[in-house]
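User: Please work through this fold.
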Amino acid sequence: MASRQRKASHQADRPKPDQPAVQAIPAWRQSPLEPRDKIRRHQMAVRRTGQASRNPLAPVFARAMDVGQLMAPRRWLALVVLALAAVAFNQLLLLPEFTVTAANVRVRGSHRASVDQIYAASGLEGTNVFRVQGDGAAERVTEVPGVESVQVHVRLPADVVIDVVELAPIAIVQTITETLWIGSDGVGIGQVGEPPTLTLFDDSGSVRDASGAVLPEIVEGLETIRANRPDLTDIRYGTLEGLYFSAPEGYTVYLGQGGAIAQKLALLEATQQQVAEWGYYPDVIDLRYDGYAMLR
């Protein structure tokens, strides 16, 4: 019975003689379900997983290249502007209107050092105003003897103002061969204006170093004497005695080479009071040894 059914089915599948045979169309000739242009777009949008896995920053680089292409004209324009600005600035530096000369420099506050000396020390002659370095010029001017501090102000087109603060003279130093006015740095300064009230007489010729400046410890001692005993006007210096002076009472006071002069002057005041109470005046009050007053 099963064989009969299979025969019947085979017979049903076979075309009847009066029906035309239908030819099978190959798959490659069949029309696609979608238009070919849509298929191409879909294919182009497919991500290439192999390349993406090899370089994950490829989209970033591609975006940067696109932005760079868009910004390229602006970069070229900026470079051209910078080049023109550089050329214009270079030409500006060559104009004589912006060159510093002695005619457009003012020096203020200088009484002992001459204006020409200050200007020459500044090193500004012939410098373009845009290249003036105020701090450097001020530092050079402070090398002038007697100058304590300097400020340099620059104004267009080429005006320069140099403000000078000079050292005040603290003492007159009288050596065997010359007379000096010295400032707090021990260097001789111009003898202009009111002279200082304190005079140091150098009996030994050894108060100055090889450069000609008074030794720092002696300068410090003189400043202390001026501050604590303004009544003392004449101080002497000897190799053995150091700083010393003659008191109005007739005795000599030895202060030594310097150092702790303020304490020595305080001890001297107490010793003078004691001597006055005793009614005995020695020839020498020796304070060269710190903390002791020896009478003889």
Notes: The longest helix spans residues 58-93.
